[in-house]
Structure formats: structure tokens, C-alpha cells
Amino acid sequence: MGRFEMLKILGYSSILALAACGVSERVERRAANDAAIFYEPCDAPASTVCAFVNSPVPLKPVPVKFFTRKNEFYPTAKPLEFIDARGQRWVAPELTLTDGASIPTVFVPMIGFPTSPEFLNAAAMHDAYCGIGNEKGQNYHSISWQRTHRMFYDALRVGGTSAIKAKIMFAAVYLGGPRWADTTFRTPKQNTRSRRLIRRSHTDISLLQSGLSLQELRQLFAVVKRYIVETNPTIQGLESYLVVKEDQAILLAAQKDDSPSVHDPYAPYDLYGP
Question: Residue 213: which domain range?
Fold first, then answer.
């Protein structure tokens, strides 16, 4: 075996080892900081707490336009509250801006634009915590993005959305929705290459920022959507599945950017099989 081939193998092994380290830290961090998202969902038989207060939320007939968005947004005319399965109280204050969907635009061609009234309460609540135009709201980014997106699923179910549809919409906001930093976590000092890979495993960085293209992100979502439709996993099982699939996507992005010689462009998504 030549020296060049040996270096390629060693480089590939290093990438896998570093990425595995990042995955391990990611899982440990999630277990420590976001274990609460594995609580029973609002569609569990034992869940009797979940409910909206002041539902359905009325909207003021005053459209607001953002140049980055095609749809019009409307401010809520009254506060809306939601109680999740743990008894946690979520609040969308009056004048929360919402377009009634909360679906990342990258996935709209694959899901369609949700316009049914059953989505409105969940969308308004989700927008209060992470939606455009609500950045100065009292609850904006006040709770981790994982729990906020999980609340969206619970709110959809309470609003009457079917389990399969709610899981698909949850997966969409999980993979393509907003994320924000957890200030309790700091990256350990590493060499440049290791730090770059570990940064990609931070849960506050979107997949597009991690190096995936729009086409790759849609391809990943298509696999996840098929998994949901074919297996109808529990929401806890879906959350675990999304963690694994995202880490695989991050690893592939790292290989693509840092070591093109070991990247196979013809079969990059074999890892995405169920």
C-alpha cells in the first residue's frame, strides 16, 4: 500500500473518530439539557392536562408583510395559552404575529402550505417563541428550540391534527426550523479541524449552516417523512430517529467539505435508510 493511500485511510479514520466524538457529546448534552422533551405527549392516553386557553385565537384584520416571506402575517387579538402534558404553561401574548403555518419554506413544496384552522393555535404559539416579527416578545427564545418544537407537535394534536400529519410537521420544524444557542454549553478547545466538526454537532446550528445544501436537506426530510408514514413511530421514537439522521447528515457534510477524496457523490445517502 502506497503512502498516499495510507494517508487517505488515516484521514478517513480521523474524520469518523472526531465525528463520533461530536455525536457522543451531542447525545450527552441533549440528555442533560433537553431530557424533558421525552415526556409523554399530549396524545398519550394518560395525558389529561393538555389544553388551550382562549381558543381559538382571534386575529386582527391588519396584515403585516415581510420582504423575505411570501405570506401575510396577522397579529393575534388576544393572548393565547397552552398547557402541555407536563403542566407547563406556554403563552402567546396579544399582538403575536403569525401566518398560521410555522412550516419552514424549504419544505412547503413537500408538505403543502397548511391553511386549516386546526393549525392556527399551534402556529401562533410556536411563532411567539421563535417566529419572525416576534423577536421583541417576552417569550421569544426563552425555552430551548427542542422543547419549543415539541410543544408545536403537542399543540397540533390538541388542535385536532392527525398523529401522522403532526409528526410530519414536527419533523419539518425540527430539521428546517429556527434554532438558537444554549448558552450553558461551551466548545472545548480543540485543533481547527476537530473544532469545526464538533461545531457542526452543536444542536443550535441549523443543518444548512452545517454544510447541507437545500437539495440534501429536502432529501433527508423525504426519508424522514417516509419513515413516519410507513412506521408511525411514537413522538419520542421520532425524536431519537431525528437525532441519529441529523448526525449522519452532519458527518456526510464534514466528509464532503474536509475530505473530498473519501466522499462518494453517487451514494451519499445510504446512511439515511431506515
Answer: 3-33+182-272
